[in-house]
Amino acid sequence: MTDFNIPPWAFIWIAIAISAAVTYSSRFLGVIFSGKVRSDGKLIEWVACVTYALLAGLVARMIILPIGSLGEATDWMRLSATAAGLAAFYAYRRSVAAGVITGTLALIIMLW
Question: Can you give the pTM of this predicted structure?
Fold first, then answer.
């Protein structure tokens, strides 16, 4: 192993610089190519489908196998809050805000 005369705190700045370079280079490429990609193309449609599938999987995992403080709620509490949120979502003309607020309040009330 070679011994570099780099102080230990410098590795933090190196990690931050590499992380910033990776993050901003992908954003830069996104800006360059965004005008060349058709918004109604098959690639964008596939990306949207994958995004919705990942989101659905994460929500299902939160309901079925919760971790952290959500795990304190019983199964019937989580499922009831989900049902209340879905009912509010459809009752208020597919309002995501109404569904989230109703489901959250239902869970809070049941845990109280």
Answer: 0.62
